[in-house]
Amino acid sequence: MIIKDLTNYLETIAPLSYQESYDNCGLLVGDPSWEITNVLVSLDITPEVVAEAVAKGCNVVVAHHPVIFKGLKKINGKNYIEKTVISAIKNDIALYAIHTNLDNVADGVNFKIAETLGLKNIKVLAPKEEQLMKLTVFVPKEYSGQMLDALYAAGAGEIGNYSNCSFRTEGKGTFKPNEKATPWVGTPGRYEQVEENRIEVIFPVFLKAKVLAGMRAGHTYEEISYFLELLQNQNQFVGSGAVGVLEESMATQDFLAHLKDKMKAQVIRHTEFHTSEIKTVAVCGGVGSFLLGAAKQAGADIFVTADYKYHEFFDAEKQIIIADIGHFESEQYTKDLLVEKISKKFTNFATYLSEIDTNPIKYYY
């Protein structure tokens, strides 16, 4: 297996187009054509993690946080970022980051937190818009099945738990080929009418090129009549945060103890208890204050996240409990999530969970 095989798979789980504008996901260091020896999975990439990769015989590190966020003008080892990059290059270690794109998918970082807390009926907290497109294409009636098969194979027509979704209407297509045309049906210079189907399918924006290639492969016409629309619909499987419900309500104090235990939190900073019971829980790994409004709108009793600032705690306004468990603590199980997915997909190399504690925050008791 080569690195490109691994990155292609990871980008089907969390497409790079789903990352936030400030982020820097993808292959940061290394050649996609390198053959994979073994893979090390970590939350962060530091010189110590690269050294661990060398010791374990791994030439790929897959991490949640990118070690390079901004452009590097010099690489002379003056900080941990430059030291990490130098060490990776010297040891032929590829570095791959899967950050906010993994935050923004169902079954990603936030769903892992929700599952760890035992939540049910988990949904994306703040679904994103303009992540879906609709293709409308006109095809000879008798070739509609061939066209739909090609579109489905390219990933179109999947809506939640349903596949092979489409809509078709019957009608007549008209055209008049000129003398340079080589029509599949009809004669140059002659007006034609053909029984056609108008086929409509929805697909994620990142699959546009693949779906159009499938359309062309499945069509019979020399010139294909089609159009694309960017939809305003929310994609319920792409977006920030997650929200779910406990199987049974818990006393607020008991839920905080449960949260501390399950997320291995050293301390929980929280707002006052405005409710005696917790049933609906919203979560966001890492910095989550931007989702407080969505958590309130979802009717959450508590919002579990990290990196809250002093003045932001006032925004709870006795409508919701804010619980800050720490950045590392909120995202630590991302490593387990990635190891599970990579190990299940690839069996011809080993995937290791990093043993390095990369949390830069320590607690004094």
From TrEMBL:
Q: Which InterPro entries match?
A: DUF34/NIF3, DUF34/NIF3_bac, DUF34/NIF3_sf, N-reg_PII/ATP_PRibTrfase_C
UniProt keywords, alphabetically: Metal-binding
SUPFAM superfamilies noted in UniProt: NIF3 (NGG1p interacting factor 3)-like
Q: Which NCBIfam families match?
A: YbgI_SA1388
Q: Which family does it belong to?
A: Belongs to the GTP cyclohydrolase I type 2/NIF3 family.
Q: What is this protein called?
A: GTP cyclohydrolase 1 type 2 homolog
* Species for this entry: Lacihabitans lacunae
Upper lineage is: Bacteria, Pseudomonadati, Bacteroidota, Cytophagia, Cytophagales
